[in-house]
Amino acid sequence: MNHLLSAFLLAYLSITQAIASTVVIEVQDDRGHKVKLSQPAQRIVSLAPSTTELLFSAGAGKQVVGVVSYSNFPEEAQRITSVGSYNQVDLESVLALNPDLVVAWYSGNSPAAIEQLKRLGMPVYLTETRYLEQLPVTVRKLGLLTGHADSAEKIAEQLHQGLVTLKQQYSQQRPVRVFYQVWDEPLITINQENLISQVIELCGGQNVFADLNSIAPRISVEAVLQANPDVIIASGMEEQRPEWLDAWQYWPSLNAVKQQQLHFIPPDLIQRQTPRVLQGAILMCQQLAQTRQRLSKASNE
Known about the structure:
12 strands, alpha/beta, elongated
């Protein structure tokens, strides 16, 4: 009887292992393409600084074997092999790393490079985050693809709840007219399709250039003067406040200058589509709250 039971258990285990080996991990990326893996990815190449952050957030940092330049967060990412830049990927370097998953940025990476990787049979997950609610979903999907569903779920839920809390606290406050300045020469802002514009709305702000056609349009100084924002928030390229932000002091008729509302948010906290957007959103909501107080005080004087 014991022999029969042992034989049964052995057969059962063999069947369950065979079934487990055929289980396919399948998710849909941000372009609607299905990405299928026979097992969690163990060697991952990330083709954008933001996708590198997302992978680390999902708990898969140790599985990332290749990144592109400016992948500077978290600190460990700076020690990973480089495969070029987001707009000039070295395909030979990618192939040499023998990845079982490539995580790419649809609007930033070269379409030709992405197609070449697909033709070579590599699973490619494309990110294209245009909405705040996409971020927790992307973290969850990357968690599934890399075998970190539980840890990814915790981060995704924290991000979701953080954004919900900010929306409840600020979105119905007195509207504040916002000019978000990406750069100075040329003068660049954002329209309503940009994720940053959604952060502005979350904080009870109104993007004065929301209706422009381009997602990152070039504008003129005259257009800013005509829009007359209550606050100007700049990012730039570095972690320090850009000197060019204070050039608006030459236009004292601007409401933002009158109310001394020229603010700065480090670009990595607001311009990368990662969970750190929550930190950038908290800063922006605090800045708009300050502007709101200034406007209220001015109207009562």
